[in-house]
Structures are given as C-alpha cells and as structure tokens.
C-alpha cells in the first residue's frame, strides 16, 4: 500500500530530516508512526502527500510513485488519501457541512451524492447537529471531528493523521482515537503520527519508531519505548 | 466540467460575500482606481476639445491688393485648394469685407462716417486658409511666397503671427504628449495599487489555499473562485465609480464650459455612458481576474 524505499531527506549538511528510511504498510493496517518532536514523523507525511520530494529514495502509494508526480498530478493523487492535521486545517469561511462537502466537490462528485453522504458522515463523527456551524463556533475536539469527517467522506484508501490529538485535552483525545480506530475497523488503512505514548500503548497495533530521521524499531504489536 | 465551473462560480460569489470586510476594502480601492481612470478619459476629452478649439483659432489670411481682379483671386484659391495640407478656404471679397466691417462697427458713428467720407472701398479681398494640422501652416505660407502670386498679394498673415502660431503648435503638442504620458502613468499606478490590494487579500487566504490543495482541489478549483471574486469586485467597482461620477460631472461641467467654449462634459458623459460602463467593467474585471490569477499562482506550487 504505502512503501518507503531507502528514503532520505536532507535540507543541508546540518539538517538531515530522514536517513535511509524503509518501511511498508499493508491494506487495512493501523500503523502508528512514533518518535519525539523532530524525529522525522511530519517529514514522512509531507513526502507521502507530495508536499516535498525526497533527496534520495522512492515513496510509493498504491500504483503511484509519489516522488515522481508532477505538480499538476498532485490534486488527483491526494483525493486517494484523507489527511487529518494537528491544527485541523478547516476552511474558516465554510461551515462544518461545507468543509466536509468540499472533499467531495473537489473530486467532482454530483450534488445529489454530496447531499446524501455529508449528513451521514457528520452523524458518524457525532456532529449531525453542527453542520451549519463555522469552525470558529466549534470546540477543538469538534473541529478535529469535522476534519476527520472531511478526510473520510470520499472513502479514501488511507487516512493519514498527523498528531491529530496534539491540540486536544485527554477527553477529546480519547474520542478522536476511538473514531480513528472505528474508521480503521471499517477497512481504511490508517497511519497515525504521534508522540503521545499513552495513545500508542493503548492501541496495541503496529508501531514504527523514528529517531533522528531513522527507523529504529518496527513491531507488529508495538509499544512506544522512549530512547 | 460544467459541475466544476458552476462550483467555481458558486464558491467565488460565496467567498466574496463571506469575506465581507476584505471584499469591501478591495472594491473601495478598485472603485478609486476606476474613478481615476474615468477621470483620465474625461481629462483626455477635455484636453482634446481644448486643442481643437485652439486649432480652430489658427489660420492663414492672404490679403490681395485692391486692384487684383476677382477671377485672379479665385484662380489662386483654386491652386491653393489643391495643396494636400489645406482643409478649407473661405473667400471674402472686398464687398463682403466692407459689409462685415460695417456690421462689426455699426454702433461706432465715427467709423461709419469715415467710411462714407472715403467713398471708395478701401478694404482688401482675402482668403482664410485652414490646414489639417497647425504644423502645416509653414509649408502653406511657403507655397504662397511663389513669385507668380507676388504681384497680387498684399500680405500674408502667417509671417505676422508666426511666433504665436509656433507657440500654439508647441503647446498643443505638449498637451497631447503630456496628457498621454499622464494617462498612462496614472493608469499604471492605479493598476498596480489594485493588483497589490488583491495580492494582499489573497495573501491573507494563503492558508486556505494550502488546505484546498491538501484536500486535493485542482488548480482550477483553487484559483477559479478567486478570479470570480476579482471579477465581482471589478463589476461592482465599475458600477459604483460611474454612479459617483454623475454628480461630480454635473458639478464640474458648467465650470469647464466657461473655460472651453462649446465643451459640454455632461452631454459627452451621458451620451457615452454605456461605453464608459462597459469600458470600466472590462477594465475592472480584467484587472481583478488577472491580479487574482497571478497572486494565487505563487501558492499553487506545493
């Protein structure tokens, strides 16, 4: 599904973000990408969604070789992925409903389908009654649920969550993680980048540990072990 | 394709409406720029009418000796008429000259009396020659210096008025050149100000553009709504600038006609209102959409 083959990302001789990273995921897997701040988790995600290109190595997503994609090919490629960010990245001038609908609109889905799917997904994330609210009218947890609804509404093969609980309190953190587990159980591959030890240890799923830009551990039912 | 286009238009209008304050500020700047450009168009009209009115005052008058027979004068008229530079010639015979003189001085008893005492008509027949452009008078005057005409012509007014004509020609050329340069300069400045305002408005939306890209929006879907937004700004600014121009022009028109006789800016404005509206809209929409297109391009690289 996702494969990193000998990937390095070097900004300059003093700033090596990733070094010879190799790992791959299987369809339907839940993979936690862990490590301290600056370990290289976000770089892995930026390379995976084509925001940056590796200095060396190859990044695969399904049939796409991401590092070779042209700028104009990126939008179509990104519609195969759902991304959830730490800072939510909701469109401030669109309501919760419109934010979710936007992921379908960019894919050119017909209005009838949008009208049908968006309320269903908002219901699923527990925001059936908040569709008309704008992001500034929602709590952090609610914003992140809108972001998850947007990431999953077009039924992507993979959802990538980059520190999705970084800005949330423990109660909302649990809610969001439970939601991601539920989405994974419905068959979507999930890549969760986090430095939250409790979350990772509570999941009991595959853990890839990064340190100083290198993969130092890759375990099937792993734990977040601080190095 | 149609779905995408209708979404682009829908998003564009929605963005315009929801970014109320920013949209109002952009419309205000565009409105001022368009008002300036409308002012420049009208300024060009005023100067060109002033130039025409000045040009109209320039001519060459050829006075003929009183003993020159009329058919000889008409022959000369014919040969001067054939010059490419000549726009028109008016022939004033001795009799007509006297009548004109009398009617001009009919209230002055002493002059009427003096004419009657002289008995014979002392006035000379003349040809009033107008050229297509003021700088052609010199060559017409040279043609009139032909030795063939020498015995018949008493004087040519060009020599007498040469300095004044040359000065007028220089002023007219300066007005034309200066007016054009000023128009271009101010239009460029207005365009740059609008472009920068739109650039700043889009800069404040750069995160939003990043989000759209991350969700998988195509360049057309990201850029399109901003261009529609720019177009709406242009249309509104064009309409508002014309609405405000109406009272300004009504106020200024009588003052301008006092300076330049025959100039009626109000009438000129109203008879060209549709052209102005279309021109302003096209200019507003073009600068709005092109500025948006260019400003968004920078953020579409990732």
Task: Give short descriptive properties of this protein.
heterodimer, A: 227 residues, alpha/beta, Rossmann fold, 2 domains, six-stranded mixed β-sheet, four-stranded antiparallel β-sheet, 7 helices, 10 strands, 32% helix, B: 302 residues, alpha+beta, Alpha-Beta Plaits, 7% strand, elongated
* Strand element count of chain B: 4
Percent strand of chain B: 5-15%
Q: What is the straight-line distance between the termini of chain B?
A: 24 Å
Number of helices of chain A: 7
Total domain units of chain A: 2
Radius of gyration of chain B: 31 Å
How would you describe the shape of chain B?
A: elongated
Helix content estimate of chain B: over 70%
Rounded average pLDDT of chain B = 86
- The backbone outline of chain A, from C-alpha atoms, is globular
The interface involving the most residues is between: A-B, 27 and 23 residues
| Helix content, binned percent of chain A | 25-40%
* Major sheet attributes of chain A: 6 strands, mixed
SSE class of chain B: alpha+beta
| Architecture per CATH nomenclature, i.e. the level-2 architecture of the largest domain in chain A | 3-Layer(aba) Sandwich
Count of all domains of chain B: 2
Note the main sheet of chain B. 4 strands, antiparallel
Please state how the strands of the largest beta sheet of chain A are arranged side by side: 6-7-8-3-9-10
Oligomer: heterodimer
Number of helices of chain B: 12
Strand fraction of chain A equals: 25-35%
């Amino acid at each position: 599904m996702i494969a990193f083959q000998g990937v390095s990302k070097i900004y300059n001789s003093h700033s090596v973000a990733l070094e010879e990273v190799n790992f791959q995921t299987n369809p339907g897997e839940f993979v936690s990408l862990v490590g301290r701040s600056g370990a290289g988790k976000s770089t892995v995600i930026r390379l995976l969604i084509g925001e940056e290109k590796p200095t060396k190595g190859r990044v695969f997503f399904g049939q796409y070789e991401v590092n070779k994609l042209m700028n104009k090919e990126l939008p179509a490629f990104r519609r195969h992925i759902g991304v959830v960010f730490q800072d939510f990245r909701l469109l401030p001038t669109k309501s919760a409903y419109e934010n979710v609908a936007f992921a379908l609109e960019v894919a050119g889905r017909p209005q009838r389908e949008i009208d049908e799917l968006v309320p269903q997904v908002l219901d699923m994330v527990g925001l059936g009654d908040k569709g008309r609210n704008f992001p500034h009218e929602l709590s952090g947890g609610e914003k992140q649920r809108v972001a998850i609804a947007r990431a999953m509404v077009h039924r992507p093969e993979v959802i990538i969550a980059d520190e999705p609980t970084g800005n949330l309190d423990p109660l909302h953190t649990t809610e969001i993680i439970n939601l991601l587990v539920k989405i994974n159980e419905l068959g979507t591959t999930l890549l969760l980048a986090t430095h939250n030890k409790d979350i990772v240890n509570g999941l009991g799923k595959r853990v890839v540990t990064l340190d100083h830009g290198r993969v130092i551990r890759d375990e099937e039912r792993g734990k977040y072990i601080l190095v | 394709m149609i779905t995408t286009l209708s979404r682009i238009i829908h998003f564009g209008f929605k963005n315009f409406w929801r970014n109320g304050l920013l949209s109002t500020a952009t419309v205000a700047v565009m409105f001022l720029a368009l008002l300036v450009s409308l002012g420049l168009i009208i300024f060009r009209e005023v100067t060109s009418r002033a130039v025409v009115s000045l040009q109209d005052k320039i001519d060459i008058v050829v006075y003929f000796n009183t003993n020159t027979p009329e058919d000889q004068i008409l022959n000369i008229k014919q040969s001067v008429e054939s010059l490419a530079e000549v726009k028109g010639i008016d022939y004033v015979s001795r009799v007509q000259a006297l009548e004109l003189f009398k009617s001009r001085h009919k209230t002055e008893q002493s002059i009427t009396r003096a004419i009657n005492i002289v008995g014979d008509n002392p006035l000379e027949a003349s040809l009033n020659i107008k050229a297509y452009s003021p700088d052609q008078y010199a060559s017409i005057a040279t043609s009139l210096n032909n030795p063939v005409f020498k015995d018949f012509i008493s004087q040519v007014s060009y020599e007498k008025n040469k300095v004044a004509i040359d000065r007028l020609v220089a002023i007219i050329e300066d007005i034309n050149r200066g007016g054009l340069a000023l128009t271009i300069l101010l239009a460029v400045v207005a365009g740059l100000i609008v472009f920068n305002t739109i650039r700043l408005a889009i800069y404040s939306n750069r995160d939003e553009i990043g989000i759209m890209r991350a969700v998988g929006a195509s360049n057309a879907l990201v850029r399109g709504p901003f261009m529609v937004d720019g177009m709406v700004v242009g249309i509104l600014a064009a309409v508002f600038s014309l609405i405000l121009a109406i009272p300004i022009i009504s106020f200024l028109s009588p003052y301008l006609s006092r300076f330049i006789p025959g100039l009626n800016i109000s009438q000129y404005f109203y008879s060209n209102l549709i052209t102005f509206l279309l021109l302003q809209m096209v200019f507003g929409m073009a600068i709005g959409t092109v500025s948006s297109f260019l400003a968004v391009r920078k953020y579409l690289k990732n």
